[in-house]
Amino acid sequence: MSRDLAPLSRDLAPLFDPVSVAVVGASDDPAKYGHAIASQALRAPHRRPIHLVNRRGGTVLGQSAAPSLTALGEPVGLVVVSVPAPVYEQTVEEALACGARAIVAVTAGFAETGAEGLARQRAVAEKVRAAGAVLVGPNCLGIADNTTELYLASDAFDLGGVALLSQSGNLALELQLAFAPHGLGFSRFVSLGNQSDVTLVDLVRDCARHDATKAIAVYAEDFGDGRAFAQAAATAGKPVVLLSAGRGAAAARSAASHTGALTTSAAIVAAACRDAGVELVRTPREMTAVLAAVAGGRRARGRRVAVFTDGGGHGVVAADAAEAAGFAVPELGPRVRERLAGQLWGPSALGNPVDLAGMGEQDPMSYAAVVRTLLDSDEIDAVLMTGYFGGYSSDSGGLGGATGTLGATELAAADSIARAVRASPKPVVAQSMYPDAPSCQNLQAAGIPVFAAIEDAARALAAVVVAEDAGAEGGAAALEPLPEPAEPMTDTGYYATRAVLAEAGLRFPASAEISTEAGVRAFARSTSGPFVLKALHLLHKSDAGGVALNLADEEALVAAHREMHARLSAPSYSVEQMADLGAGVELIVGVNRDPRFGPIAMVGLGGVFTEVLGDVVFALAPVSAARAETMLRDLRCAALLDGVRGRPAVDVAAAAKAIEQITRVAAVQYDLAEFEVNPLLALPSGALALDARAVPLVPPSLSDY
To answer: In what order do the strands lie in the sheet with 142-145?
Structure first.
């Protein structure tokens, strides 16, 4: 995982707009991939020369085929390699010798087969880079660029503004079908393959510069350098939507801390997306909903949504869906209600949801009047329209279709709604029982996404909310560069870890490391109680009975030491002043080093119930104090920070500063797998670290503890 978040971007022009193309392995056999790609490549022979290569020569797809690249007798710009694995290296070398600046390797059988295949793959990639060329794959399914008429995938894709970077070819076909009702299409398609040379990060950066690409859609199972992906997405300047597979529980391992036990692949990817401003989705359907919304370009500046319907049931369901998506559905004020009352009839509901209650059948233009009023109101940030709209112009709606009076009026209402939306910066999203109706298609054409399911409409609306504090919530400002590594911690013991944190500014209770009863008594006589006794050099001190709390005086401390030492025979112990846990809130702050995304910070409710409650949030580390405060406010237990049931509010700013100090220390220790302070006691004034643990990247055996 590279520390460099912004390496030089690679020139991928030879890949997406080559001077010529050669398909090696072109075939007349429809069962072979070389047939599919050659067929697509020949769709645009006017744009650039298209050469077909088949070792038997002759003709392929009615065009003369050369027996080899060399036999073409002229340089080639891009070479598609679709040959058996045993001749892969030879074919790539011949392509480079013929001047190829880009290679698309369909051939499979490399890293996905094991160590030997990985070694072959790397060797070829090194030769390609040494020649100054670029390679996509191997084990990919081709590429396409509709803007340059480059068709080197098995299927044709409709022209549009979405660049799809995917580790699945079939997913592209599914998205093509899902996109069609929303007028979406593809600017580019790239099958990532094994990413031996050109990576996902390279492609995101290039698509960010591509004027015809308005949004970047990614399906990824392997991010490679995840931190660089997050940075590329954060600085893309256009929406990035990620469908990530394999985000379940992390591979089974023996976690040496609460942080290790609670940090999963899903949590890491979600944290990276949040910090980078990436829309994370779970299904192709959800990806379509998000892309349909962001394509409109309008953004909601807050989370107050007006639900507008023509039936009570639709309104209630939509309001629930909006709230589940994180929106507020506030009751409208008297001025807006008064204006609505002048546009609707007596049975209509004027609060929120706004319900036409049959007014639409009297006058479909009432839909447009309500939308205009809601968009004009400074009480709401977005409009969610739901229900029957579309039924009047639909032949299946039962009320006359597009040629009837109601249908024609509904079409006019759709045009009026479109004009109102174009004149407003606020987004409108619709759900309709008849999403294919002519009036709904008019809305779609105007950039108003229409969905058949209300949950899709609510998710789409959530995708266009602009965070109130973009720096704290996500985007490039939330991604701090990884610092240069510090000297390795040769001693990761309790007191060595405390010393590193204390040097960074973290406060700890008074304490001493002792190994004799005399030392216990000396500490007790120099410091007021109550006391804490901890057995050192144990992974989980509490679980082993190696922590004793609330020891009132010297004799209680000595008794606890005798009993604990008789059971554990620890080489040394820590005696500390006991903090007043009831005066504050116990937090956990941990950092886990992920091989793809680097250090990941975790903040949550701490103490002995950390793993039981699991109330934690994650972010890419290091985190600033401002970002840390946002993380604290995102906890389910955040209300505890402000005081409950007579308990005082805690110093959230001090806790956030402590989190910043901890994550900065952990981020520079590249030799550590896990770093944890648990608990960090947030107090009414300041914060106090009560325990600390550092786990080496390669943990020692249990016999060393």
So the answer is: 150-153, 142-145, 186-191, 159-166, 215-220, 240-244, 279-281
Same-domain check for residues 309 and 271 = no
Query: What is the rounded CA–CA span in Å between residue 628 and residue 595?
Result: 23
Q: Are residues 215 and 75 in the same domain?
A: yes
Residue 8 pLDDT greater than 70, yes or no: no
Asked if residue 538 and residue 608 are part of one domain, the reply reads no
Burial class (CB in 10 A: 0-12, 13-18, 19+), 518: exposed
Residue the block writes with tokens 């979405």:
162
Residue linked to tokens 């009297």: 362
Return the structure tokens found at 488.
């390795």
Shared-domain flag, residues 220 and 359: no
Is 440 domain-assigned? yes
pTM, full prediction: 0.89
Q: Which tokens is 132 given?
A: 């100054």
Q: Which helix (H) or strand (E) holds 159?
A: strand 159-166
Strands (E), 466-620: 511-514, 531-535, 547-551, 573-577, 585-594, 598-605, 616-620
Alpha carbon separation from 122 to 235, 238, 680 (Å, rounded): 29, 32, 46
Interacting residues of 282 by C-beta distance below 8 A, sequence separation 6+: 243
Q: Are residues 197 and 321 in the same domain?
A: no
The enclosing domain of 78 has a CATH number of 3.40.50.261
CB 619 within 8 A of CB 274: yes
Omega cis (within 30) before 334: no
In degrees and rounded to multiples of 5, residue 104 shows phi and psi of -115, 110
Question: How far apart are alpha carbons 95 and 79 in whole angstroms?
Answer: 7
Number of H helices, E strands in the chain: 24, 29
pLDDT digits (tens, 9 = 90+) for 245-261: 755 444 334 344 555 45
Tokens at 181, concatenated: 């009702």
Per-residue confidence (pLDDT) for residue 87, from 0 to 100: 96
Q: Kindly state whether residues 627 and 558 are assigned to the same domain.
A: no
Residue of 203, 147, 142 whose CA lies nearest to 173: 142
What is the total count of domains within the chain? 4
Q: Give the C-alpha separation, 317 to 457, whole Å.
A: 12
Residues 528 and 629 in one domain: no
Q: Three-state secondary structure along 44-70?
A: CCCCCCEEEECCCCCEECCEEEECCCH
Last residue of a domain, one of 532, 553, 577: 577
Residue ending a domain, among 442, 465, 488, is 465
Query: What's phi and psi for 272, nearest 5 deg?
Result: -60, -40
The predicted-structure confidence for 262-279, as pLDDT tens digits, reads as follows: 556 888 899 999 999 999
User: DSSP secondary structure string, 74-124?
Assistant: S--SEEEE-S-GGGHHHHHHHHHHTT-SEEEE----SGGG-HHHHHHHHHH
Domain holding 245, by residue range, is 13-292
Q: Which residues pair with 594 in a beta bridge?
A: 598
Question: Does residue 170 lie in a domain region?
Answer: yes
Nearest to 154 by CA among 30, 16, 13: 30
In a domain, 334, yes or no: yes
653 and 519 inside one domain: no
Domain at 619, CATH number: 3.30.470.20
Strands of the 134-136 sheet, one edge to the other: 59-60, 63-66, 50-53, 21-24, 78-81, 102-105, 134-136
CB 1 within 8 A of CB 598: yes
Mean pLDDT of the chain, nearest integer:
90
Per-residue pLDDT at 66: 97
Classify residue 629: in a domain, yes or no: yes
The overall longest dimension of the chain from CA atoms, in Å, is 98
Quick one: which H or E segment has residue 281? strand 279-281
The span from the CA of 382 to the CA of 121, in Å, is 50
